[in-house]
Amino acid sequence: MADEPEVSGGPPAGERRALGVDAPxxxxxxxxxxxxxxxxxxxxxxxxxxxxxxxxIALFFAIGLDPxxxxxQRRGLRRGWAVFAIVAAVISVVVVFLAAAxxxxxxxxxxxxxxxxxxxxxxxxxxxxxxxxxxxFDVVTRLRALLAGETEEGAPAFDSAFGDVxxxxxxxxxxxxxxxxxxxxxxxxxxxxxxxRQTAYRLVPRSRxxxxxxxxDQALDQIGAYLLGNLATSVIAASASxxxxxxxxxxxxxxxxxxxAFTGLIPLVGATIGSVVAIFVAFLVSLPVGIATLVFSFxxxxxxxFVLVPRIMKRAVDVSPLATIVAALIGAALLGIxxxxxxxxVAASIQIIGRQVxxxxxxxx
Length: 365
What we know:
This protein is an all-alpha fold. It is built from 11 helices and no strands. Helix 2 packs across helix 6, helix 2 crosses helix 7 and helix 3 crosses helix 5. The chain is globular. 21% of the residues are buried.
């Protein structure tokens, strides 16, 4: 009986030997290359993080203004003219606001700077707690020296003041450059957003393109509604604070309300951040006024977080109050202020996907 040939499913012996020697080395080499490439990619992303953040903010505002552009397009305007009209309207609002707000803001801020030493003297004279703090930590003395432009030894702090001025000027220029960059990028994004959206839709397989485009359009519309809702909460916070400041007699109510209006754009904690300055000025007036302002700020912040914001966002982006609070907290923890701004529309988008994609599939199983 002839010997049957040996049947083997593996590679020849020579190839097995080559694999036995080369495969671990090749695998390790490719793994090292992958790790190095990942490290370089992470470094590049971290180095470009400021630019990526500006691009993200510009895209966020462009998406937020896109519903207004689409509204004008549905009424017969071409997209170019619609973009021009929206941008002109935004610029006009900003210019009118600055023209109305800048003169009293500058005047009252200058008055505050001039009269602050008198407030400090009155506070030290009438408040025993402040006197004790000044005796222990020289709080009032240091503030007076700072306002007078002197060092702790009493010498003119020209170098320090010059350094502060240079630092402030540098910060103002950097902020202006960042704002201009965001504005220009937002304008370009807004002008070409329709084309960018259609290009992105073409990357999706044709069988799923219609459903994907519907979901994406709904999610993008949520951002515009969210921006309007956020602006509404900021205006309400500034208006309520202005009325309170006038009623209790806090000086410079308009600049303080403007600070709260701008910081109020930050979800959850914005009004609190803006209230810190108002609370400081209120304590300079008197201890009861300071305590009343502190209580008002705390109560209003709770009202805004748990009543006002959830209700407005429920109408604007159809997100439950609990989801609004949780999303804002998670977004702030991950990406800071920008994450808090993005959190609610992202939560709305996830809710749309869950409602129209995930739940129907689960029901069909």
